Amino acid sequence: MADFTFHHGGVSVPSLEQAIEWYGTILGFTVEHRFYIEAARSHTAMLRKGPLRFEIFEVEGAAPLPDERRYPPRDVQTHGNKHVAFQVADLDSFLAEMEQKGADIAMVVRESFGRGCFIRDCAGNLIEFVEGVA
Whole-angstrom Cα distance, residue 124 to residue 11? Predict the structure, then answer.
């Protein structure tokens, strides 16, 4: 079987500048590089935080995020890609930091199968954070 590793996640947003600011301020990502994708008519930025990468697209004429994609239990009721998930060491510390920074916390999960949360970026895209158990 071919060997591969994870490279990046990606989201489409209405404003690349607002997203760069949000991902930098809230999650600590920095711009690795910016480029234009002609075939998609997308102003694009690859953001990086350590080994993690996140690609942000501002596509000319893109449709807004449907409301049901903003709520984790409703989002999974439609086929397709759902979200990217990152691991945090301590959920409660992470949530306290997100609240202090004014992040939009969509859902907190504290179940026997695990602990985590979903936040929404500045465009409403869901991002999951799970409390780490290797």
Answer: 10
